[in-house]
Amino acid sequence: MIDIFTTGGTIDKVYFDALSEYQVGPTAVADMLRQNNVQCEHRVTQLLRKDSLDMTDEDRAAIRQAVESSDAQRILITHGTDTMVETARTLDGIDGKTIVLTGALQPATLKHSDAEFNIGFALAAAQSLPPGVYVAMNGRIFDPATARKDRAGGRFVD
Q1: How many CB atoms lie within 10 A of CB 141?
Q2: Which pLDDT belongs to residue 77?
Q3: CB 97 within 8 A of CB 116
Q4: Which of 10, 62, 88, 143 has the smallest CB count inside 10 Å?
Q5: Three-state SS string across 58-104, please?
């Protein structure tokens, strides 16, 4: 069983009309997994619907509590990319669980989004990596202790 906790971020942003800005909407992850015929046993829980820039220490504590309380040993967390590494660092020290955080640089609702690839990649990482905390973005696995988002390059780097 893989527990998938969604917290919002760009991956779940929606654009309502030409005069609106993106807003975090309901998670797209459950539909994405169903549409792609994902067969591994999983459950999706929407914890938050926030842009990661708006995430607080209390939000991070709630994410940690959900991970610690889960009966699953493999955890996938979708998260906004701006503070994903910070949240990953707050999950350090949870023993016996493989915890993988991922997100998207473009909303899942857009045609050219990296969301589906990143979710699939992170799902595979959660099933195959040893216990620990990881960031999985755009085909690479990062250690949160050294990773950072390169805004100008639109990617994560060590």
Answers
A1: 16
A2: 98
A3: no
A4: 143
A5: HHHHHHHHHHHHCCCCEEEEECCCCCHHHHHHHCCCCCCCEEEEECC
pLDDT for the residue 16: 63
Q: Which of 7, 10, 27, 78 is catalytic?
A: 10
| Contact call for residues 52 and 8 (beta carbons, < 8 A) | yes
- Per run of 10 residues, the mean pLDDT along the chain (length 158 residues) is 94 69 78 89 95 96 98 97 97 98 88 90 98 97 97 92
pTM to 2 decimals? 0.93
Is 98 in contact with 73 (CB distance < 8 Å)?
yes
* Residue-by-residue DSSP string for 94-140: -TT-EEEEE--SS-TTSTT-SHHHHHHHHHHHHHHSPSEEEEEETTE
pLDDT at residue 28 in the model = 81
Task: Find the CATH number of the domain harbouring 107.
Answer: 3.40.50.1170
Contact between 83 and 53 under an 8 Å Cβ cutoff? The reply is: yes
Residue 97: domain span? 2-157
Residue 100 in tokens: 């993988």
What confidence score (pLDDT) does residue 12 get?
85
User: Any catalytic annotation for residue 10?
Assistant: yes
